[in-house]
Amino acid sequence: QEKVVESGGGSVQSGGSLRLSCLASGYSRSTTCMAWFRQAPDSEREGIAVIDYDGNVVVADSVKDRFTASRGDDKDSFYLQMDDVKPEDTGTYYCAAATFCVYGGTLLARELTRPDDFNSWGQGTQVTVSS
What is the pLDDT of residues 84-98, one digit of tens each? Predict the structure, then answer.
């Protein structure tokens, strides 16, 4: 069965860094469509980063100056490096995966607004940023 597991969350002071890890397993391909979403208290789920089958990566405009995303050498891991974190980054971070992205290439950013395209979700990892 397809499975997604996140790790790396925790509490950090404003301006600090965290590195979140996502591991997908059970897929027939070594590479998948993978994404990070987050949900702050009393807020809608927000797309943060996505990678398509060909390795293209898009990070949301709201955080792209501070966050980077990359795929691991095993091609089934997707990392979110969070630098210069702010209290507004507080929330539950979810990793999601699908065999294919519905949109890719120059249209990949659309997946940040399409959580229903991802059929496998992790349990979430909590990030708390204090001022």
Answer: 999 999 999 999 999
